[in-house]
């Protein structure tokens, strides 16, 4: 992994950070950067509820349009950029490969044209791997499992070629998102199981889930560091979706038998890799990540539910 030239305003002191995206993960990254004292602008085609417009709030952009991306960068004049935009519904992406490629690959290409040496971080995915192995590290060869993985890998290649860029491949991201357009697996299970409703879960599918706050912490730390290349973020526990869902049921005081295993091919997860797990060969070598140990998914799930978050 190479060390990049010092970023303008992000390594030492405060700077302007542009986040491409305004959804669950993007907003958490923006919130973390703001807590560190940076001026943060989220961007998307539609303004999210509760976020004001302007340089310190939200700015419109269509990443598929070259002129829209250029106008965004000219308006915000960021010191650094984080790409955490959609679409991220992998099943939808598989059915719509053209728009998926335009948003991810095209968006990365349009940003690279106007990056101008700025520091940038792309949040990528475990779907750049086929899932035949139990887990994947940074040195493993990529082989995308689906249209989403292909689009993300194209974005990775484009941005890494631009220089000054770090790619953070995150495993399955979870946390509380009860008001989102497409709540994540943890939230969906907690909502349904606590209401006594069954959930259908693909059997034989494995993840190394990461808490959304850990992704935000790692993204902020890495953006402020000097390194470029690829870093993996996977949770410390590899577990099946069925095991996780039954743990969530017990934490909610629900019957674990409400979790209904089904063949992966019969579920919405048919196009996803059987093993969607990541481990890092590099994170321990990066001083900016010192002390940022990802939460254990079973412990974090229990804590989130015991804190009484509404769903």
- The CATH topology assignment of the domain at 16-173 and 210-237 and 277-294 is Rossmann fold
The pLDDT mean sits at 92
CATH architecture of the domain at 16-173 and 210-237 and 277-294: 3-Layer(aba) Sandwich
How far is the first residue's CA from the last residue's CA? 42 Å
Region (Disordered): 43-62
Protein name: Sugar nucleotide-binding protein
Domain RmlD-like substrate binding: 16-283
Organism: Kitasatospora camelliae
List keywords for this structure.
311 residues; alpha/beta; three-stranded mixed β-sheet; disordered N terminus; RmlD-like-bd
Overview in brief:
With about 300 residues, the protein is of the alpha/beta class. It is built from 9 helices and 14 strands. The chain has helices at about 25-35, 65-75, 90-95, 95-115, 145-160, 185-195, 210-225, 240-250, 295-305; strands spanning about 15-20, 40-45, 60, 80-85, 120-125, 165-170, 175, 200-205, 205, 210, 230-235, 240, 260-265, 275.
Structure characterization notes:
- This is Sugar nucleotide-binding protein.
- Residues 16-283 form the RmlD-like substrate binding domain.
- Residues 43-62 are annotated as: Disordered.
- There is one protein chain.
- By secondary structure, the protein is α/β, with parallel strands linked by helices.
- It has helices spanning 24-35, 66-76, 90-95, 97-114, 147-162, 185-194, 212-223, 241-252, 297-306; strands at 16-20, 39-44, 58-60, 80-83, 119-125, 165-170, 173-174, 199-203, 206-207, 210-211, 229-233, 239-240, 259-263, 275-276.
- Helix 4 packs parallel to helix 5 (147-162) and helix 8 runs parallel beside helix 9.
- The protein has a domain at 16-173 and 210-237 and 277-294: Rossmann fold.
- A 7-stranded parallel beta sheet has the order 3-2-1-4-5-6-11, sandwiched between helices. The protein has a 3-stranded mixed beta sheet with strand order 12-9-14.
- It is globular, with a radius of gyration of 19 Å.
- Mean pLDDT is 92; it is low at 2-9.
- Helix content is 34%, strand content 18%.
- The termini are far apart.
